[in-house]
Design a protein that fits this description.
- The protein has 505 residues and is of the alpha+beta class.
- Among the domains are: 181 residues, no CATH class; 69 residues, no CATH class.
- It contains 18 helices and 13 strands.
- Strands 1, 3, 7, 8, 9, 10 and 11 form a seven-stranded antiparallel sheet that branches. A two-stranded antiparallel ribbon has the order 2-4. A two-stranded antiparallel sheet has the order 5-6.
- α7 runs parallel beside α9.
- The two termini are 41 Å apart.
- It binds adenosine monophosphate (AMP) and magnesium ion (MG).
- Magnesium ion binds next to loops.
């Protein structure tokens, strides 16, 4: 049966048929180290993501071939791929680190689809490269599962992100705070070029390499502006634009990246390099999910400003290509742009269209209320959707101080009345943008514990399926995967609120 599908559907390929373009190789040896992944013994499949396979047109049946784990653990090199570790540097916690680079990851190459989309395939955790700085070149099973599900949850929310094709376990213990199982993540991304890729050449004083990289990024990712006379300025504008979009999306989803170093900022404004990240349970602008971030540099409320700072560092690398005052002008566009995008997203969350000062006050008051009462952030918006809808009880009763809520709801009602919105329409609109399910850290931890302690990956699969579409119940699928929506949509138990994670988590 599987064979028949492969024959009839020519768009779906076997692994050996993946058409690789290796455009990055053409940039030359200054940009990377060529290296094959280190072979591993006895790799095994932890979780395969058919949605990501579909994205790059691999037949889902390929995951049951032994060749799948051989290729994606790096034990065999995929035909046509030219594995390489990219060089980059970057600002980590505000301090410049001159030498980073893919210490444990390899880019296999990119595959171009008939619709023009291009996806890079990258293995993370496949042995030390020249950039490993004494580290072991491996990734923990725990962190690989976190990145695998983080990307899928983000995608389910409609936010640009890297995807994960699979997690491959390897039978090797690696040492972090304690011995850990190791794994390899098969990551797909539109780009693996980071702000730090530019910084590396800028700070080693090679403006011609900055230009080559900029030309490469323009040709690959922004072909519509690649021939414009002021293309480098426009490139900066595009990076600012997509980063502002990303940050507005993160802030409203309640996503804390945890390590917004410039080497973890993608040039295409994609959520990139999931480390000790968190989707918040409760709204707290001071919360940072990263245990090592003692000063809260990357706390939820800091992220938009950090992105601005990082964009500044990226902009500086273009100084040989764009006059300083133009870079400055572009950068000054970030804050108002971000504010507008954030307001628009908050407007959608509340189903309000007129985004005037009244609305800004309403949204600000809401965040203050959520912060003070520590109500579940995600569930609040789902409950609010039912507000004033006939035959639906609004379940606010036991939450926080009623008078504050009543005052806020009265204000909300006034703004709704201005627009004459039908409550049922509003409910539908709100439930399309406010998820019912998010990747709560305690759910993720549960899946990881089961995987590590029992070798049982069913909960990883369950969360992946659940978060593909976090906005609605899907009774048939839920029955198939034994997903009880009430369990997965309930508030996070107090004991699990605001846990922090280490960078190797
Ligand atoms: P990250 O915190 O994952 O963004 O990584 C920061 C830098 O450290 C990058 O250059 C990584 O390649 C490198 N790195 C992190 N962990 C390892 C490891 N176990 N082996 C080699 N390099 C690593
Ligand atoms: Mg990184």
């Amino acid at each position: 049966m599987r064979g028949t599908i492969a024959i009839h559907d020519r768009t779906q390929k076997t692994l050996e048929q993946i058409p690789f373009d290796n455009t990055f190789v053409k940039l030359g040896a200054d940009f990377f180290q060529s290296k094959s992944p280190d072979p591993v013994t006895d790799p095994y499949l932890v979780d395969f993501n058919p949605e990501a396979a579909r994205l790059i047109q691999i037949h889902p049946g390929e995951s049951s071939r032994e060749a799948f784990v051989q290729f994606f653990s790096g034990s065999q090199v995929l035909p046509g791929s030219e594995p390489l570790a990219m060089v980059y540097s970057g600002h980590q916690f505000g301090v410049y680190n001159p030498r980073l680079g893919d210490g444990r990851g390899l880019l296999l190459g990119e595959t171009r689809l008939p619709n023009g989309e291009t996806w890079e395939i990258h293995l993370k955790g496949c042995g030390p490269t020249r950039f490993a700085r004494g580290f072991d070149g491996r990734a923990t099973l725990r962190s690989s599962i976190r990145e695998h599900l983080g990307g899928e949850a983000m995608h389910g929310l409609g936010i640009p992100t890297t995807r994960s094709l699979a997690v491959i376990g390897i039978r090797e213990l690696i040492y972090r705070e304690r011995p850990e199982l190791a794994a390899i993540l098969v990551r797909l991304s539109d780009s693996h070029i980071r702000f730090g890729s530019f910084e590396y050449f800028h700070y080693t004083n090679r403006p011609e390499k900055v230009r080559e990289l900029a030309d490469y990024v323009l040709a690959r990712h922004f072909p519509d502006i690649a021939d414009e006379p002021d293309r480098y300025r426009l490139l900066f504008r595009r990076v600012i634009l997509s980063t502002a979009h990303l940050l507005a999306a993160w802030q409203t989803a309640g996503f804390v990246h945890g390590v917004m170093n410039t080497d973890n900022m993608s040039i295409t404004g994609t959520t990139f390099d999931y480390g000790p990240y968190a989707f918040i349970d409760r709204y707290n602008p001071h919360f940072t999910s990263n245990h090592s971030d003692t000063h809260g540099r990357y706390a939820l409320g800091q992220q938009p400003e950090i992105a601005h700072w990082n964009l500044g560092k990226f902009g500086e690398t273009l100084i040989g290509l764009v006059p300083a005052e133009h870079l400055q002008q572009e950068l000054e566009g970030y804050q108002p742009l971000f504010n507008r995008l954030l307001r628009e997203r908050m407007g959608k969350k509340l189903a309000i269209q007129v985004l005037d000062e009244e609305f800004t006050t309403l949204a600000g008051n809401l965040l203050r209320y959520l912060y003070e009462t520590r109500i579940d952030y995600t569930n609040f918006f789902r409950r609010l959707a039912d507000y004033q809808v006939d035959n639906r009880e609004t379940r606010f009763e036991s939450q926080g101080q009623k008078s504050d809520l009543e005052t806020w709801l009265a204000h909300y009602q006034r703004l709704l009345d201005r627009e004459d919105t039908d409550p049922e329409d509003r409910r539908k609109e709100m439930n399309r943008v406010n998820p019912k399910f998010i990747l709560r850290n305690y759910l993720l931890e549960g899946a990881i514990t089961k995987a590590i302690q029992e070798g049982d990956f069913s909960e990883v699969e369950r969360l992946r399926i659940l978060l593909q579409d976090p906005f609605r119940d899907r009774p048939e699928i839920f029955a198939q995967y034994k997903i009880d929506p009430d369990v997965y949509a309930s508030d996070t138990p107090d004991a699990f609120i605001e846990h922090q994670l280490s960078c190797s988590a």
